[in-house]
Structures are given as structure tokens and as C-alpha cells.
Queue: 2 jobs
Job 1
Amino acid sequence: MCGIFGYIGTRSALPVLVEGLRRLEYRGYDSTGVAIHDGDQISVHKTVGKVQNLQSVLPSEVPGTMGIAHTRWATHGGVTFVNTHPHASHDGKIHLVHNGIIENFRSLHRRVKAHGIECVGETDSEVLVHLMGIELAGGATPQEAVERTLHLARGTWGLSILFLDHDVLICARNGSPLIIGQGDGEMFVSSDPHPLSAHTQRVVYMEDGDLAILTRDSMKMVTHKGHSIDPTVTVLEDSWSESDLGDSPHFMHKEIYEQPEALRHCIAGRVDREMGSGRLGGMRLGHSTMVQAPHVRLLGCGTANFAAEIGQMLIEKMARIPAVTHISSEFRNNDPVINPKAIYLAVSQSGETADTISAVKEIKLKGGQVFGVVNVVGSTIARLCGQGVYIHSGPEQSVASTKAFTNMVAALTIFATQLGRTRHLSKAKGREIIEHLQQAPHLMESYFENPGPIDEAVALLAEAKSVLFLGRGLSAPVAKEGALKLMELAYIPCLAYPAGEMKHGPIALLEEGSPVVIVAPNDHLKEKTLSALHECRARGAKIILIHEEGDTIASEGDVSIAVPRIHPWLTPLLTVVPLQLIAYSTALHLGKDVDRPRNLAKSVTVE
Ligand code: M6R
């Protein structure tokens, strides 16, 4: 949610900043801007729209070796030119980019006004730069100006700040991620690690309350209390550099087809086939914790929440202990009861989702033990939890999550076998699950060889007023995931229901020709799901049926798409793939921006 990139070095800043923005664009794309310092003056270029729009208004060359850049996802203030970052102080001596929300911006606004300064836009961010300007004009150093301003502010921020009269870049973090990249004679700052990988592997993850004062060859870090700290330099994993589009038409296409390989990464070295158990070292789960845990609670938003729902069912099946999934954004506000003996799992691709971060903090505050199930290494959730499992999908850049979903399901499956083996799961059953899980990447590849009549499904869906998605048991969250994908990419209203609930309300929506997508793998619930299918058909609905290869129910669909057979507990790993392809192809057919759907952002870093 909003992307920040900053540079101070010896190279021309403009191309470095624009490339950084391009790689961060998935965090928000309402408007973009850069500010570049050439030693004498700061020039600002900004525009409403995407990085591509910015490139079209930029001069071919902008002198300067230091600058800041921003891609915005609007919170306070409309999508307009004046609300586009960077924002400047009244005298033009400070320029700033901000990610986060300043909760008390109204009272800060009054304070700014009392100094005779008018804000030009409506953003909460602009008040910060004016307050810093007031401090600087009053004789404060840049560091003091930032510290005193942030002392007044309440809310969240990732900030990168340029000063006209000082050869320094100051960054501050509170609740919105910022990572410093250390080069040779140059420094970078970014909201995400992967734009940094093009320049350096040496990074420092800023913590909440930290301030970083960057020059070309030095980095000073202080806490919010002004204490100096020794930054911990981390070496970025190689996988973060492989985030280019390559030959693929879109990141979503690339990421869908990367799933078999991503899945292999997730599983490799983490299963004990002989013992029929998972082996998740990073979970640091003591035997007594696993044996004594009274229940498991899983948390996540959007796609991560649906993966968690599948994990919940697998944990109950394999470990026979109660498991419940919560929507993170609801969790903290409901004053949850936390059992210190229970196991809490925070599921997130980005590791930066504000709602999930809040939930993790609430659990920790009340003495609970929470484990991250996260993709981005070193992300806030991963570091807050300090224990857990990386799902190892590699960078996911399309706003619509695909390979992270299947890897979350795989990681939770491995966790369920590990927990299950300390309890009721037999060695033979554990082995059976692991053997099938190891075959899943290959089965996905074989599905890609023959993905079925996706175009026929698109033809049924593209003009629909709304689409109903149905599934039972493990397929209910898959139906929800399919509905979310189609809705966020093609902007078609979609409703997902457990198939048995359809007759309790959603059936009223059906009329002649209404498309219904039904996920019906060959499990013990298939016959019941088929009853829902017949009820839909009786009302004139057109059925898009996802089923397993060789199943005679294929004839029940107006469009039937077969996926390879797999163990009934692992079907979500395969049944979700055609739903991803359907959403992708429908959006393309309708001329939508597949990787950058409107109003959305990849990491939702505000509550
Ligand atoms: O980074 P996270 O996994 O925590 O993100 C959670 C959701 O914001 C995310 O899954 C969202 O629903 C996706 N756009 C779905 O495709």
C-alpha cells in the first residue's frame, strides 16, 4: 500500500528511482512522483496514474544523484495531482514521501495553519512536511526536525525525506515497512526487498520507531528515543532477484505457471517420508507444545484467509484438535480470548498486512505463541513472530495472489502432518499424505498440458451480472478463492457459498442462464455437491464444473474442466488452478488490467 523508493549515491538518480517505482508499483498505482536533488535545487515530477504515465511526463534527463519516489494508493484525499507525493514544505526546503496513515492529522493541520501555512492538498502526509519545515526554519537540524515532528504524530509511517540544504536522506519507520540497501558509495531505501536486489544484497530492515540518516557512504540509525543502534545487516536471498516478467505476458500468468516449481521449493527438505511427518524446523515447536495445545487458531485476510480455512480443516482431520480460522481484520477488535498453550498461525504472503500484524500483536500481548506462515523473508510478520514457516513462493508481483495460495496450503498441510503425528495420525496415513503432496507439483504440470475448455468458461462468465461459486468441505474455501479472483480481476460481482447453504438464500439469484461454478472433486462430499448442482440446473443455471479426471460427473457440467486425481485431502492444490486461469482469461477478455486491478494494492498496510 504505497511504495517508497529512495536513492543517495553517485549515479544519476532518475533511472534508479523509476526502476524502483516500477518494481513497487503493485503496492499502489493511483499516482506516482519523484523528487530529485541536484545539489542546488530539488525538481519534482508527478502525475496521476501509473509509473508508465510518469515516464511519459518526465524529461529525458533530470540531473541529480539523490532523490525520493512514491507510488500512491489513496487513503486520505482523492486521486489528484496535488495529493500525489512527494509533498513539499511551504518554503520548498523539504520534500517527503509517506506510506501509512497519520491519525491525528486534523489537529496537526490546525497547528500548521496557526503558523500561517496552508496545505495545498488533502492528504494526511502533507502536514508532516510542513511541521518539519517549521522546525527547520526555527533552527533545528534535519534529524531534529524529523524527530520533533514524529513526536507529535500518531499513526503509521514509512517516510523518506530530502532536504534542499543538506546532503542527506532521512528515513523513518513506524508500522509501514522500510528496508535500507547498502551499496558501495550509495544507499537505497525501499518498501519491499525485491527492488533492492537489483543493486545490492546487503539490507537492513528498519524497526518501528527507527530513524535512519543516510549519506552516500554512511548509515546512522537511532531509535525513537534518540539512542544510537547498530543496524543488523541481512543478506537478501537470491530468489528475490528473479522478479522480472521474462517471456510471460503478465505477472499473474507467470506466477500461475510457476506453481509447480514453487510448490517443490515449499516441500523440499520439510517432510520425513519415512516417519510420515512434517519437519518444519523454523516452527521451533517443542514436543510438549504440540502435545498439549488445546486448539489451533489461524488468521489471515483475503486469499491467505481461504488458505487458512483449508489448513484449519486439515489440522482437524490429521491432528483431531479443534482449529478455527479468523479474519484478521475482525480478530483484534473482538477482544479475543488468548490461550497461552494454543498455537496461533498468522498466514500472509507479504507479511505486511496491517490487519494481520495487529492480530499478531494482540496475541503476543496476551501471552499467546504465534507462528508466521509467510512468504516475504524478513517481513514484519515474520520478524514479529520470530518463528514459523516461510512458504517459499518467490516474489509474487501480481496483485491477485496465486502461487502464494497453493504454497500456503502446502505449508499448512505439512504442519498438519507434523502436529497430527504427535497425536492421532498414523505413520501409514502420514506417509500417504506426504507421498501425494510430493506428487502435487507434477500433477499441476500435467494439468497445464491440458487445461481444458477455459475459453468456454470465459464465454459463459464474461457478460454475467453475477456469478455463484459453490463447493463443500475443502472445496468451500476453494470456491471462495475462485470468486475472489474473478471479482478482483474482472469486476464481476461473485458470491461464494458452501454448496449446502445455496438453498438457504443464494438460490434466489438464479435465473435462466446464470453461471454457477461448482468445485466437486471426487471426495466423500461429491454426491451432496451434485445435489446442489441439480438444484441450480433446475433453475436454468449454466454450470461450470471443476472435477477430477475420469470422473463420470463430467457430463453434468455445461463446461467441465478436469484436474488430475489426487488424495481427497489435497484436492485444493489442483482444483484452484483452473479457477485462477478462468479469472485471468475473463479479465483479459474484458480488457482489464490483470496485474493491476483497479482500487487494489498488493500489500494492504493500513487497517
Ligand atoms: O499479503 P497477504 O497475504 O497478507 O495479503 C492478504 C490479502 O490482501 C490478499 O490475499 C488479497 O486478498 C489478494 N489481492 C487476493 O488475490
Note: Residues 427-449 form the longest helix (23 residues).
Job 2
Amino acid sequence: MPRFRTLIGALSVSLVMAAQPAWADDGYALWLRSIAKVDRQAVVTALGDSATLTLAASELRRALPMETPAIVVATASAPSVRALTLPFSTLGDEGYLVCNVTLNGKRVILVAGNSDRGTLYGAFALIRHLATGGQAAAVNLRSAPKVKLRVLNHWDNLDESVERGYAGQSIWDWWTLPDFRDPRYTDYARANASIGINGTVLNNVNAKADSLTAPYIAKAAALANVFRPWGMRVYLSARFSAPIELGGLKTADPRDPAVAAWWKAKADEIYRAIPDFGGFLVKANSEGQPGPRDYGASHADGANMLAAAVRDHGGIVMWRAFVYAETDPEDRAKQAYSEFKPLDGTFADNVLVQVKNGAIDFQPREPFHPLFGAMPRTPLMIEFQITKEYLGFATHLAYLGPLFTEVLDAKTGQKPGETVADVVDGQAEHHKLSGMAGVANIGRDRDWSGSTFNQSNWYAFGRLAWDPDLSAEEIARSWAAQTFGTDRQVIDTVTAMMMGSREAVVDYTGALGLAHLMATGHHYGPGPWVSDLARPEWNPTYYHRADANGIGFDRTASGSNAVGQYAGSVAKSFAKPETTPESMLLWFHHLPWDRRMASGRNLWEDLVAHYDRGVAYVAQMQRQWEGLRSKIDAERWQKTATYLAVQEREARWWRDASLAYWMSVNHRPLPAGVRAPEHDLAWYKLQRFPYAPGHTQ
Ligand code: BDP
């Protein structure tokens, strides 16, 4: 009998498979999938033999078939390239050009930059150009990164768990490093180089001092050696109290010369092992982490002391502005600005202040952080979260390109026309340092990011860090072509699914500017009713302030006046409900449930409609994906289909639990024809997920 069942199982599997391409694809190749047959590769010549130039040539050979016109990779300083007098002067250190030229009497495609790193980026740009349907004959690419530091932040712990990681254990196998260098480290660096990422912070911002001990420095150095030819530098998160924990000092006060000397010696030790070490990332006086405020010193005192330790080596410090304190009764959304704005102009010139995209915490939607544009004398590095802590973990399909660009394109209101992107890329104030950080979604899962579509968020981050002015849709299309091939129907459908997917998450988790409605700890699933946590600002009820009459956080002058932290026309528009975009309405205003909305419905009905729209969007993605079954390999298709089914179920759960709760508060019926929640509120409140992935340690 069991044997019979297995046979039936196998038959039904093969019947299902018959409708689908038979090849398997586990997603490991990411968007770098075009592979030429070994005996039919393009002819590529490298003028020079640096490790990076050699990689550029081998990447092109690996990806492009022999029909491709001959390619030459070189740097601008190669004599035959210099003779062409091409416009290299505006390309900086890392830019490239890719064009058809006659070199030594032969027509070739030249891929060149001022440095071999630029050339490597050019090689990947050519691969992208051809993989997305571009022609070789007319190729003419020219680009330089607008942002200098394009850095992943791994929230990876030394025990190999990942805080807010949903793609398995950490890819850093700290235990076997430095001896064993998993080939995966090379593939990681290669993937990053292909989208222009040039730095990586290896360890969690909630850092252990142990990362700074000699054995762990040696492990980081082994990774740095693997990454170097790919143009990537290594950075470490530094625990501010390390001089006490590792150095036996009595204090970590940044004004104490012994503390500064300890850090200087530590930096010297790191640079002996990693000569191109990038520098430190610091989370200080935030969520229980130690910092300079413990000693009455300022964030600038702390940052500058560390900056002095790495300065002579060319290192930098990324000092996070993600601070809020339980001792401060002020609106949490205001605290970072209040603490950091007065410090503008006091940071050393090798410090960047790293600011999350919004004032609270990587929610599905937040208005841009008011610090952007408000600290003109300080380079501000924007921090996005690529891992989807608040957008459905790895299982939900949510393309973050529109979230990233919504923030980057936002007008700051500080100077006419100035956008957040202008501040971030340093253009606004001509800063020599600029940076973009993304909290990585990478783990040891075979497909790196927990799902095929999550890979698009890593990709989008890299592409936008290179050029914050790219459009989310353009990036989605390139990613779709590089990931699934150039079939028009596939690209159009995948792009369409992606483009509305983040808005769908906003809709089914809480639209109209609501935020922070998730369950406690793991942040998985709904918990808008939670009101019993130790710190007021950890409770969803703190954020939505719903009662029988209305809902929303009054951040106008009559409330917390967070609106006052914005400038010019932006502050003006957020000050009144009539001029606030409806997508941010309840972030800034507490309004009656009966308020009339643009749709003609009242606020309550409108909110309900958003929940339904979000759920419907997921069902639509399922149908769209079903239509691609015959065009996508079985393995990636099936996993995505399964995850979409999970997402559909969980979108309904978010909707139903939220509606059950709002109705318990506003005592209003659902509009006519709207489906009632599946369970009562008590049932939703009872759901527990003690082993959800990505917990804090
Ligand atoms: C929050 C995460 C927490 C991080 C914190 C941070 O829940 O795990 O430590 O951000 O950015 O969103 O430091």
C-alpha cells in the first residue's frame, strides 16, 4: 500500500510538471544567469593582469556567447586606450564606459574605467545590457555612481543567527573562518559587485565586543581578502563599551584619553590585518546599547573619538541616528531629530550620520525622516531595510523599489526642489562623503534571500545606491529580464506584480498612514490591540490612538508637533488633513471615523476598502503567476506559487484581525456587502509564534 501511494504521488507530480518547463532552478544564480557554453564563449582580452581586471574578463566570458563582438577590458591608463582620448575625466574612481571603438585597427567593444573596479562595473553593465535585450552593435554605456559608500548592513550574530533574517542562518560561518573560505563568499561578492555594492558591515548593529578580538579580526580579514578583488570593503559594527569589556578600562567615556587610546590601538590592530578596512558602524544609546550619553557626552563626542582612531588609515564612521529613549516622553518620531539636529556641524569630516528612511522604524510606509535636509553640514547616509521585518518576512512578495524611490524622490522642503536623494548623494551640499546602507536579506538559504522575489530587493538596493534617480519600474524590468529571461509576457507580468506589491502590503497591514501595528517581539502578523508592553512606544496603541470617535496620531501643533520638524511647503502640507496625502493621513492627524475621504466614503469605510484591496491584490498576483506556469522553471515557479498562497492566507489574517479589533473600538458595522472576519477578536489575540524566525537575541 505505501508503495502504491508513492507511485500515485510520483504520477501526479509528473502530470503537474508536464505543463511546465522541466528544468530545475534553485535560484542560486540570482540575476547572473546568462551562461555561455564553455567552448562557445565570447572573445575577451584584458589589457593588464590585475585580479579585478581578470575577473572582469572572466565574467564577460562566462556570460556572453562567441557571437558577441570581440571585447577588450582595460583601464583608462592603458596606452592604446589613452590614445583614443575618450571622456574618462568625469567618471571618477568607479565609473565606466562601454562603447564600440577601433583599437589597434580592430573594431571591439571597449569596457573601461579609470580604475579596474570601474572596469569590473562596466563588465557587469554590459552583461546587464545584453541580458535585458540590448544590442551589442550600438552599445554605448556610461555611468558613475552618484553615492560613494554603497553598503550592506548584515545584522548577523556571532552564533550565526541573523536578527530579522528570514533566509536561514548567517552566510558567515564564523566557526570555520578564517581557515575555510566557503566558495559562497566569492559568489556573494560577485553578486554585490554586479549591482555596484562596494562595502559590507559583517556583524549586527546590536554588536558583541567579541567581534573586535584578535580571532574575529582574523576571520573578518579572511572575508576581506575574498571580497577585495570584487571592489568590496569590510566594515564592523563596534560595541561602544568594548574598552571596558575587552580592554579592562573602567569607562568608555569618549572624552577620556585612555578610551581614545584604546580605540586607536584597536583600529591600528584591525588595519594591520585589513589594510583597506572601511571603518565602524555604531548603534549607540539606542534600545539598550551603550553609548556616549551614558557619560553625559554627546553622539558627536562618541563619533569623533572613533573617527580619530581610523582617520590616518582612511577609515570612516557611520553613526546611527536611530535613537529613542524610554525616559523621554516625547513622540518617538521626534526624538532622533531633536537629538541630532543641534549637532550639525560638529562631526568630524570622516563621519556620516546614518538615518533610517523614516522617523520610526522601517514600517511599510513612513514619511521621509525629517533629518534629511535639516543637517546640511553633515553627510547623511540613508538606511533602508532590505530584509522585510515589517513586510511579511521572506514569504510575502513585496518589491521594495517603490518604497525606496518614494523616499528618495520626496522633496525635503528645505531648499527649492531639493529631494532626499540630493541630500543622500551629497549633491545638495557638495559633501565628499555620501552613502546608502541596506539591512541585508541574505542568509544561507540556497536562493540567498528566502525567495526569488526577495532577490529583487537586494538588486534594487544596489542599483539605487549607484543611482538614486533610477525608477523602481525600470529596475524591476531589468531584474525580471535578468532573472527570468527576455520573454515579453514574463517581464510585463512580473513587473506588474512587483510594482503594486508593496502597496498591497500597506493596504492589508494598515493603510492611510497607520504604522507599527504588528505583534510583539517577532513582528510577525497583526497586533493592533497590544497595549501592555513596558515602554509606551513599543505598543501599537501608542501609534494608532484609536477610540470610539477617531483614529490617528496628532503630530500637528495641537499634538506632538512632529510636523514642525519638517520644512517649508512640506511642513505646510502635513500641517492640515486637507493638504496631507491620504497615504500619510493618520501618521500626522487624529481624525473622526466619519471624516469624508477623496473616494467619497468615510474614513472607516475607506480603511476597510484598503484592507480588501490589499487582499485582492495578492489573489490577483496568484492569477498572474498562474499564467506564467509554462514559462518559468518548475522549482522557482512552485516555490513562488506556494509563497503567494501563504501570503494570501496571511493577508486575510491581517485584514480580519485588524477589522475585528477596529470594530471593537469604534463599534461600527462593516459596510454593506463586506465579508466579516473569519474569527472573533479573542481568537486573533490568542495566536502565538514563539519560534518565528529572526527574533532578537
Ligand atoms: C528594529 C529591529 C531591531 C533592530 C533595530 C535597529 O526590530 O531588531 O535592532 O531596528 O535598527 O527595527 O537597531
Note: The chain has three domains: 44-143, 149-484, 507-553+590-685.
